[in-house]
Amino acid sequence: LLAPQPATKPLTARSVLASPVDAPWSPGSWRNYEAKQIPKYDEEKLRKAEEELAGSAPLVFAGEVRTLMSDLGRACKGDGFVIFGGDCAESFDEFSVDHVRDTFRVILQMALICTYGGGQPVIKIGRMAGQFAKPRSSSTETIDGVTLPSYQGDNINEDKFTAEAREPNPSRMVKAYHQCAQTLNILRAFSTGGYADLSRLHNWNLDFVEQTQQGSQYRRLATKVEESLRFMRAIGVDTTTPEFTQSNFYTAHECLLLPYEQAMTREDSTTGRWYDCSAHLLWVGERTRQPGLAHFEFVRGIQNPVGVKISDKASPDDVIEILDTFNPKNVPGKVTLITRMSADKLREHLPSVLNRVKAEGRAALWVCDPVHGNTYTSSNGFKTRDVAAIKAEIQAFFDVHEQCGTHAGGIHLEMTGKDVTECVGGDMNAVTVDGPRGLDTKYLTHCDPRLNSAQALEIAFMVAERLRGQAGLPAMLD
Ligand SMILES: O=C[C@H](O)[C@H](O)COP(=O)(O)O
Ligand SMILES: C=C(OP(=O)(O)O)C(=O)O
Q: Is 340 annotated as a binding residue?
């Protein structure tokens, strides 16, 4: 149903133009605008990679994208909660079936905790099958007097510190595409092939999490859900239907590497509209979301639901301009605003933005990314985040939404199913700066620090209690 998009022209000189809502748009119109964070490629090699991608199968389909849009639309109106989770940056060397499965199952566990706790549908979205390209604060890195381009993700260059490795290579986009296809294949098999069946919910606990407080809390919760299922079966409910045995799972990534995104954009023959078939949802990052830039132009024309990262630098006017451009028809579910500020800045800044969006009657789903505003370098040189600061930002997010009468609609986490030691803190089995569970024990990330599975579950239990509180229910596990 989806016609391949023909190969694209090489990158051209950029001009800085505004992106009026009604100006003509095409998948390549971003090339007339200044593009930040996109590497300068060898043009002939880039053209070949784009052609190969444009002739490849879409990774997701327009119908799936529309289903996500309607799920997000319900959440936008207050009925639903979104969990986004996955690696900061997917990589070629960490890829394996187990790696995909372990992240998937922690997200399933988190969703079960929040569904049971909050009594709301939970929409599961993996930062998976496409989350490769990374925007960097500095375009270069200097070590011992040698300056090279910064590592920007495995679909752009390699993190090894040599001139050859850091050279942007367009064939890496094609390699990444093939890994995405495998990842999606695994995710589709796990979500619909029996693994996500609610009757297996005890098996989702990872071995190393079993030993933690979160693992035993999860076991108790799973037992309660099992009892509910037994009761339902006893009164004649059929628990072998897809509602019980399958799970909708969607993918998302930052819409950063526009040559890749354009090559994956296809016209839906049933509607004549353009869908970016690299993922169900694409978001624009804090560093590239400004009007008049190439990313803003590309995103305004695709029919996928889109996310926009919002730091404390975004004024209420900026947010209204984003909504005017990306969602001129004010469709609930079209735009998800992902705040990432740190707790203090969020308490100070978010109310004016929420009040303005609410006063103008704009449809926006609000999600909290509590990790990107809380990154710092530890005394022993690791880029890290503190679980306490992450939890504080989520609490602030719920508090501020309660004050403003708006819906706290989800969380967005850099996390993994592995027992990594990249973020400090945690209730049990805490990661510390040094020592037996010091940051250097299992620090594997290719860019930013991820929560490990016990830390992610701890956050899910906290969120579930907040959702319960909103619904006037007593604590879940007393
Ligand atoms: O994930 C977000 C960014 O890519 C990342 O935080 C940038 O890191 P840097 O400041 O080390 O470049
Ligand atoms: C780069 C990211 O976030 P931000 O744009 O908020 O910094 C990210 O989520 O990977």
A: yes
Ligand 2: which residue has its CA nearest to atom 3? 285
> What's the 39 CA to ligand 1 centre distance in angstroms?
16
- The pLDDT tens digits of the residues spanning 62-89 come to 999 999 999 999 999 999 999 999 999 9
pLDDT in tens, 381-394: 999 999 999 999 99
Give the distance (Å) from ligand 1 centre to CA of residue 304. 25
pLDDT of residue 213: 82
Place of tokens 């509602």: 243
- pLDDT given at position 1: 35
Total length of the chain? 478
pLDDT tens digits, 146-172: 999 999 999 999 999 999 999 999 999
Q: Which residues line ligand 2 (CB under 6 A)?
A: 88, 135, 254, 285-287, 309, 340, 369, 372
The region of weakest confidence among 6-20, 315-329, 377-391 is 6-20
Distance between CA 299 and CA 290 in Å, rounded?
11
Q: Taking CB atoms and a 6 Å cutoff, what residues make up the pocket around ligand 1?
A: 88, 134-137, 372, 447-448
Element holding 283 (H helix, E strand)? strand 281-284
* Nearest ligand for residue 446 CA: 1
401 is in an annotated binding site: no
How far, in Å, CA of 92 to CA of 175, rounded? Answer: 9
CA angle 348, 354, 356 (to 5 degrees): 110
The residue among 126, 113, 150 whose CA lies nearest residue 460 is: 113
- The answer to whether 309 is annotated as binding is yes
Question: What domains are there in the chain, each with its CATH number?
Answer: 54-470 (3.20.20.70)
Instruction: Provide the pLDDT for residue 13.
Output: 34
pTM: 0.94
Residue where the block lists tokens 């986490």: 413
Q: What is the DSSP string of 308-347?
A: EEE-TT--HHHHHHHHHHH-TT--TTSEEEEE---HHHHH
Cα–Cα distance between 16 and 164 in angstroms, integer? Answer: 32
245 CA to centre of ligand 2 in angstroms: 33
Q: Structure tokens of 465?
A: 């209690």
Q: Write the residue with the smallest CA distance to atom 2 of ligand 2.
A: 285
- Only one residue has tokens 């030691």, namely 421
Phi, psi of 84 (to 5 degrees): -100, 135
Please report the atom of ligand 1 found closest to the CA of residue 150. 12
